[in-house]
Amino acid sequence: MILKKVKNEIGATAIEYGLIASLVAVVAVSGMSAVGRNLSNTYCTISKHLGGSGTCSGSFTGNANGGGSTGGSNSTGGNGNAGSSTGSVNSTNSYAEGATMDDVNNSLKDQLDSDHFPTLYGGNDYAGAYTIKAWDGDAVPTFAEYMRNINATDPITNVFGAYNADTGTPVTDYNTVLSDLQSGGSTIRTGHNGDGNILEVTTASGKVYSLQADHAGFSPGIGTVTQKENPSK
């Protein structure tokens, strides 16, 4: 009887150990499966950031270019914008977008004419007495057309020789100047030098153009605009 009881206890213990081992195995398999999916998704996300293709699934709700949890205020994913890798403040070397004048000058292949360049930035020009609206004839719409034509083939990065009509501070943003021209030219004053009818524009390729609206009595005539590229450095 004693031997039979011992055998029964040993058998029961073996069954208990077997059940415990089975439960551990189930938990382990489930855990490793979850870890595997997370690792797979993590590697997939990293791959997409490095230029790979494919669709990542799992706990990350966004993708490599979307608003997922991998994004940040200045990361390469999510809603953040990656910083420029060119070494300059911005890729266009636009003063209005935060570039310094050294950035602007270093990006140019042509020379800026200091007579039409604001004293605030090291030139000889400052706000004159008249707004663009004072130009003769069809000079204002023609000037706008010339600037649009330049921008269409070689984006304009800066405009020099334009000044806020209220404050007299330089206005260098192309879109602001173009908007004023298209509205008749009443919110921007021209420079003091060059009879107040010359603006210089810089482009993405490094060119500098001088645009001159000719006054009455000046060749080639009323309302015409002359465009020329400045000499190279």
Describe this entry's structure for a reader.
Residues 68-81 have a biased composition (Gly residues). Residues 82-94 have a biased composition (Low complexity). Keywords: Membrane, Transmembrane, Transmembrane helix. Residues 68-98 are annotated as: Disordered. By secondary structure, the protein is an alpha+beta fold. The chain has helices at residues 2-49, 101-107, 139-153, 174-182; strands spanning 127-131, 156-160, 162-164, 188-191, 198-203, 208-213, 225-229. The strands form two sheets. A four-stranded antiparallel β-sheet has the order 2-5-6-7, with helices on one face. Strands 1-4-3 form a three-stranded antiparallel β-sheet, with no helix packed on it. It is elongated and about 105 Å long.
In DSSP terms (H or I, runs of 4 or more residues), the helix count works out at 4
* pLDDT < 50 runs, ≥5 residues: 3-7, 58-90, 216-221
Mean pLDDT: 72
Helix content: 25-40%
Largest beta-sheet characterization = 4 strands, antiparallel
What is the β-strand count?
Answer: 7
Query: What is the CA-based Rg, rounded?
Result: 34 Å
Which structural class fits the helix and strand makeup?
alpha+beta
Shape: elongated
Order of helices and strands: HHEHEEHEEEE
The spatial strand order of the largest sheet comes to 2-5-6-7
How far apart, in Å, are the first and last alpha carbons? 112 Å
Share in β-strands: 5-15%
